[in-house]
Amino acid sequence: MSRIGNLPIQIPSGVTIEKIGNTVVVNGPKGKLDFNFDPTVKVEVEGDRIIVRRESDDKNVRSLHGLTRSLIANMISGVTKGWSRNLELVGVGFRAQTDGKKLNLNIGFSHPVEVNAPENVTFEVSDNTKITVLGCDKQFVGQVAANIRKIKVPDVYKGKGIRFEGEYIRKKAGKAAKVGTVGIGGNK
Predict the structure, then answer these.
(1) pLDDT above 90 covers what percent of the chain?
(2) Domain assignment of residue 64, given as a range
(3) Strands 130-135, 121-126: parallel, antiparallel or unpaired by DSSP?
């Protein structure tokens, strides 16, 4: 029995839910999202709550039950509060700034890197080294943040690069000095 899937989802005020066939459309103050769910799962809008039910107890249907409920709850949270993902620039001279809907990054390349904000996503920069990616779709915000991180992945020797806030980079030791003696006639 799915514990997550059986929980009803409360619909806050200011949010409208439409169910059209196997599609749920969520409208709110921060945007509009839609989701196509599997037909083996039933989504019912009852007053100010959404209830997700499954038709059978097959393993795949049970897993889709909780997943569908979580994705719809994330959509409702996204159109009301929004989602954010924080990135940090680590390195001497690394900095970021916004220019309208563009994010300009100076991260050690011979040229500045420009990242255009996709639709429904905005960038905020604080302290020239902290980037916040904001949007209403949780999956899309995470993907945009991952694409920015991919521009300059943190170095395993010094830790320089773009990383998620709080991400731990396990560093390698580097080249160790050769242990031994120098003999007559050269190095051994």
Answers:
(1) 80
(2) 9-80
(3) antiparallel
